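Re: the 484-residue chain
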Amino acid sequence: MPGVEGDVDAALTGRRVAAVFLGMQIGMIVSTVDSTIVATALPTIAADVGAGHQRSWVLTAYLLAQVAVMPLYGKLGDLYGRKRLYLFAIGVFALASTACGAAQDLGQLVAARALQGVGGGGLGVLAMAVLGDVVPARSLGRWLGYQGALFAAASLVGPLLGGLFVDHLSWRWAFFVNLPFAALSIAVVAAALRLPYRRVPHAIDYAGAALLTGALVGVVLLATLGGESVPWWSATTGALALTVVVLGAAFVRRERRATEPVVPLHLLAGRVARVTVGLNFTSGALFAAGIFFLPVYLQEVRGLEPTASGLLLIPFMFTTAAATLAAGRRVERSGRYRAWPIRGGVLMTAGAALLATLGTATPAGLAAAYAALLGTGIGFVMQTSLLALQNSVPARDLGAATSTALLGRVLGSTLGAALLSAVLEAALPADGGRDAAAHAAGVRHVYLAAVPVAVVATVLALRLPERPLREEARFATEVLEIAP
């Protein structure tokens, strides 16, 4: 059939769906593991390449590039097909991983990390969008649950591998390890995935893409550098914040007139889209609250070693994954999803409130149990909200909608980590007295600040409409839409 990418199967089910899922999840897992490996190995990397106080750019460069390209991948996938775009993204990621491992100084490493972010920014967006293409919405929750479980496992494996490479091999293997997995992902996706796409002229909104990129880069710079390299109350921070506002306003104005907007604003006119983007942002911020600040409490207040605190983080990660999988299976059986984000919002609020009671005498196991409650709520919210969004949009906007939701999640996590870090620092004494009691008070302030975020998520979930879930995969409908 003209205008389609290879032969489109009448029904992409069973082993073929599993193969496509596995092939694309390998790419997501590699990018997730890479981020956590690099964070673990960063002190050694900094010492080797002479990064010093600029070592944070090894992480920031990747994040900047990632958030800048995520909306573009979503839109371009809608226009030109997700398979070839995914193969491009994983290829760039692999090439950049090689360059990272071979870097001889900080400049080379930061440039390679930025290129790696260009590839990595497409892996999650395209994997999620393809899943929405090939799996009926009724069954999507189950597959998103599998994805959540893999993500949680990858988040735990990364630090362990990072320590192993630094102690027994070289930090360069933190990047070289990506290559065989990237090759496997390319081979599986190239062989198993068959999806249609349009081959008609399009006017890409380059001006809108540039404005959005500038605004997102500004937001990430504010979140990562504010309060660290640059004081929050400074002319530099103010100028950067003003630039973000101006670029954001110009982007909205541009998108209202563009023929093919990078982020179709009509999507956000619907309640489902607005609510789900908000849910992804708030749950992303609460995920950061759990994964970054529980170890602070366990190490600085309870005096545990990093390895022990890492083990006590497992309940949080496990319940996040298990709740995602359980909610997905129940949605598949019932055909109803709205109750799960509501339950998740309530559990996130309860978990954050309990974590806000932590003190110097609180048992470490009890702190881990509170975090597990928070993780259960996050698991109920994240993937079911994405399912609701993908079920509500037309096939032509699936990639743009998915990228918008995932971008909200990434920004929520980034801003949440930055702002809650500021809360922690503000609660610690300025005279340098940072004993266990001071850190316990700081962590309580962090989770007190997280409670209103969880309440907002609950309110948003209550506004999420219930829509019938599609019983057939999207790509079969899209074939009819593009057939000449």
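The chain has three domains: 6-199, 205-259, 264-477.
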